Amino acid sequence: MMLDHDSPLVQPSAAPDIAPESTVEPLPRLSEVPQPPPLRRIDLVFEQKGSLGIEFKELAAPFVIEQVHSTGLAYNRDLQKGDQLILVGGEDVTQLAWDELVQKLGPRPVLVTFERPDAVEEEPAPTSFMSGFGSTMRSLGGSVMEPFGPGRAGDVGCRTFRSLGCIGVGGRIQGLMV
Questions:
Q1: What are the pLDDT digits (tens) for 57-103?
Q2: What 3-state class would DSSP assign to 11?
Q3: What domains lie within the chain, and their CATH numbers?
Q4: How far apart are CA 34 and CA 141, in angstroms?
Q5: Element (H or E) spanning 99, and its range?
Q6: Concatenated DSSP letters of 49-90
Q7: What pTM value is reported for the model?
Q8: Do residues 86 and 114 lie in contact, with contact meaning Cβ atoms separated by under 8 Å?
Q9: In which element (H, E) is residue 161 found?
Q10: Tens digits of per-residue pLDDT, 19-41?
């Protein structure tokens, strides 16, 4: 059959036969979908002044632990890589700027709350915070970076906060410590 302008009439193709034994299962209702277990919360109180020894991945939210140093107050307090700081003094810090977080962590005593995801993959800890630069850190009431000598491998500065110690900034440092 041809239309008035000589184009063939396109007939709808027949739907493929569906075998009677193949049925489509309906999707489960949202209320029936298993929910992931809640994240584990870790509440800690720090009463002493001094560096917590917590190295975060970034100087910006979210504040996720990269490493807990043995010289800090947080050492042996059940924190591990991947834990995220969510509350300080009962206030949400998940969107806070770095400088504001530092101010909240300074006064003692301070209550902090971390959340731990179900599966945190552990990586071996580096031998030192500045292992790529050949420098070391030592504890002196906080974290202190030793200065580079001539022919240094990178430019790294030190930012000091009252009760938190020194924090390396710049260069190729990935983690930062409070």
A1: 999 999 999 999 999 999 999 999 999 999 999 999 999 999 999 99
A2: coil
A3: 39-118+125-177 (2.30.42.10)
A4: 48
A5: helix 98-105
A6: -S---EEES-SBSSEEEEEE-TTSTTTTSS--TT-EEEEETT
A7: 0.52
A8: yes
A9: strand 157-161
A10: 556 677 887 777 777 777 678 99
pLDDT of residue 123 exceeding 90, the answer is no
Q: How far apart are CA 125 and CA 69, in angstroms?
A: 10
Cα(68)–Cα(116) distance, integer angstroms: 14
Mean local confidence (pLDDT), 161-172? 48
Separation CA 164–CA 112 (nearest Å): 15
State the pLDDT at residue 4.
Answer: 60
> How many angstroms from the chain centroid is the CA of residue 28?
32
Residue 138 has pLDDT above 50, yes or no: no
Query: Cα(106)–Cα(48) distance, rounded to whole angstroms?
Result: 10
**Three-state secondary-structure class, residue 141:** coil
* CB contact set of 25 (below 8 Å; sequence gap of 6+): none
Q: What's the CA dihedral at 87, 35, 120, 67 to 10 degrees?
A: -10
Task: Check residues 21 and 45 and name the one with the higher pLDDT.
Answer: 45
As a whole number of angstroms, the distance between CA 158 and CA 168 comes to 5
